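User: I'm putting together notes for a lab meeting next week and I want to include a structural view of one of the chains we've been expressing. I don't have a solved structure, so I'd like a prediction I can at least talk through. The sequence is below, exactly as it appears in our construct file.
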Amino acid sequence: MNDLAASLGCFGPIFVILALYVLGSIRVINEYERAVVFTLGKVNKEPKGPGLIMVWRIFQKAMVISLRTVVLDVPSQDIITRDNVTLKVSAVVYFRAVDPSSAVLKVENYYAATLQIAQTTLRSVLGEASLDELLSDREKLGQRLRQLIDAATEPWGIEVSAVEVKNIDLPEQVQRAMGRQAEAEREKRAKIIAAEGELLASQQLLDASNKISQNPVAIQMRYLQTLTEIAVEKNSTILFPLPMEFMKVFEKFGGDKKD
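Assistant: Thanks for the context. Below is the predicted structure for the 259-residue chain, given as structure tokens.
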């Protein structure tokens, strides 16, 4: 019995070391993560996770890659548009790793690489657009940026879901010029609206005069209505209503005199 206890006492530290080794090899991978495992420098075919996995220390190494969408804030870039306007433009890129193995093997740092690709693509694409296109067609430019960035990052196992132009900083001179242009456009619209109003008023007056000329009594009724409107106001105007037939006598007399 003494020999057995002595032998167990010798193997006791070994069991403790093995237990600590096994416990230290246990890894817990979250639902949104995958572990790319290297065994003696060679990558396993499939990433491990989620859940409890074993990564044997010394022999294996694990790199955990998140599968969640990453919001990448692209800093302001100096852009010269097609119509030679200098401005600063910032953007936001939404991407995620769809192939963890490629994200580890084919690029050193997929986050930094995606940021550099986004910056260069932003400068090249927006430099081909004019200022008006940049201000009015943000959605169209964002789709083109997404396609180009996604095509560049696809070999790395990165999928770009959206690119949005975040902010456009216009120089003060350009802002003043756009303000003058907007003011001129408003004056132009005001003059056009006033001219259209005059045209409609003249057409209405023409139609009214044609209808009144068809019936002589209508113009007399309009004359009496005008007198009523004038009488309502408090003024010292003295009116002498004359029959319309009396005016026609003078018209006939003037016509005979010309003859």
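A couple of points you could mention at the meeting. The helical segments are 2-24, 100-105, 110-127, 131-136, 138-153, 172-213, 216-232, 244-258. The domain at 70-175 is CATH 3.30.479.30 (Tetrahydropterin Synthase; Chain A).

User: Perfect, that's what I needed.
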